[in-house]
Amino acid sequence: MSNDASLPGAEHLQPHECWAALRGVSLGRLAVWADDHPDIFPVNFTVDHGTLVFRTGPGTKLAAALGEVPVAMEADGVNPDTGVAWSVVVKGKAGAIERIEDVLDTVALLLFPWEAGEKDHFIRITADSITGRRFTVAPPRTWWTPLDDAPRASAE
Amino acid sequence: MSNDASLPGAEHLQPHECWAALRGVSLGRLAVWADDHPDIFPVNFTVDHGTLVFRTGPGTKLAAALGEVPVAMEADGVNPDTGVAWSVVVKGKAGAIERIEDVLDTVALLLFPWEAGEKDHFIRITADSITGRRFTVAPPRTWWTPLDDAPRASAE
Fold first, then answer.
1. Within a domain: residue A73?
2. What domain count does chain A have?
3. Nearest residue of A to residue B36 by CA position?
């Protein structure tokens, strides 16, 4: 196992496996550097030809944090039966989508519902690298608490 | 709404609400700065008197990334019925727990199962700040795909 897998017992994912995993989810966590600290935002994203696209509001801290500094987007998931989890990280630069035709192309990708509130900035992350790993958690229902608490909460 | 809420429509959480939310979950995403990029790792953590504690393996990229540079841990969740989601970010310094009595105190907190593999470093994040927000996603089953896909996957 190379160091990139980061954790004992982890298995590397090939880039095409990473992209396939990302295409199967819509929620990621975006890490940026802002105010001398890392910061993290949960965002909905979509995969668009080797890039990630998401929307954000004007004037937000997230928008302010996007510049020439690299960012990282992570997404993950788990199979609650097998306990096999995956995590993929895309690193790259994030830039606003400025040209109207680019925005129009992208809007079609973003028709899925979104966090409430005004969001009229479209941001694209161009991947400099994509890495992923597959690992086992045990038991998954404990490890991945939020996933399993949410359905239970709905029954209350 | 102050800028800290970051997104239109978001509502601030008070610090005690943030801590309460963190105590209810065990999975977070840790953002660090490594190799001139942000990086993100999903980790299990536990709350210990205003700090967050987690384990990691020796010699991993995660361990290497922990030093004097600040880190951020984010956790989130959603009520799939109401679509009300929350996200909390703790920022601070991460340090190894070195003193054996500190480790023993902490081990008791870490009896919940963990990702498979050897992990004998205990890391504590001391919070310099804790911020949180509550916001509405619609519909939550689309927004929070991984949560809802996982239970379905189990039926296959």
1. yes
2. 1
3. A70
ipTM for the complex? 0.77
Structural domain boundaries enclosing B136 = 11-140
Q: Which of B6, B112, B143 sits opposite A142 (nearest CB)?
A: B112
Is residue B2, in this structure, part of any structural domain at all? no
Q: Which residues of A touch B89 (CB under 8 A)?
A: 39-40
A98 lies in some domain: yes
Q: What is the CATH number of the domain that holds B62?
A: 2.30.110.10
Q: Which of residues 92-111 of B touch A (CB under 8 A)?
A: none
CA-based R_g, chain A, Å: 17
pTM for this prediction: 0.79
Q: Which tens digit of pLDDT belongs to each residue from A62-113? A: 776 777 789 999 999 988 778 888 999 999 999 887 766 666 665 555 544 4
